[in-house]
Specification:
Leucine Aminopeptidase, subunit E, domain 1; 6-stranded mixed sheet; 5 helices; 38% helix; binds ligand AR6
Length: 167
């Protein structure tokens, strides 16, 4: 398995799956979630509504992940995971780890060969980027891969890109 750290817009990547830093409502939002829903089109929202109705009427719990189609994006699938909101009082690193593990496991279950992650929780949810980078890299390095051949970490801005490279 090959790991790559790239800079840019995750919605432009041609991989089997991109991961969305969603919220438990799964109805879209700001940041990368907003960009993904805008570019994927209304079919994505429709499928998310179905997932909520059938499997998660109370919302997708933090640290969990679900998979949908890619719709108008150049990917087969979108994996939606809910990162933790950062807290200085409580260690939520296990939840952030779980986002990466659950997403990789879903990709494996679907026999995907490539996946790209954004910096989950590093925007609106306020997780320190250096801590998140160590967590992301740790999970990606120790996961047991079968079908996945390439894992990309896609960072939107120069600052985050630098921090993830240095971690
Ligand atoms: N491609 C790659 N990365 C991006 C893109 C993009 N197009 N756009 C933003 N980022 P955030 P969170 C980066 O806030 O902290 C939403 O409203 C961004 O610079 O998107 O997990 C959801 O609905 C940052 O480094 O996600 C939730 O309510 C990283 O993606 C909440 O935000 C994550 O920032 C989730 O917050």
């Amino acid at each position: 398995m090959k790991t790559e750290i790239t800079k840019g817009d995750i919605t432009k990547l041609e991989v089997d799956a991109i991961v969305n830093a969603a919220n438990s409502g799964l109805m879209g939002g700001g940041g990368v979630d907003g960009a993904i829903h805008r570019r994927a089109g209304p079919g994505l929202l429709e499928e998310c509504r179905e997932i909520r109705r059938k499997k998660f009427p109370k919302g997708l719990p933090t640290g969990k992940a679900v998979i949908t189609g890619g719709y108008d994006l150049p990917v087969k699938h979108i994996i939606h995971t809910v990162g933790p909101v950062y807290s200085r009082r409580e260690d939520r690193s296990e939840l952030l780890k779980s986002c990466f593990t659950e997403s990789l496991a879903l990709a494996e279950q679907n026999k995907l060969r490539s996946i790209a992650f954004p910096a989950i929780s590093c925007g609106i949810y306020g997780y320190p980027k250096d801590e998140a980078a160590v967590i992301a890299k740790g999970v990606i390095a120790s996961f047991e891969y079968k079908s996945l051949e390439k894992v990309i970490i896609c960072l939107f801005d120069e600052g985050t890109f630098r921090i993830f490279n240095e971690a």
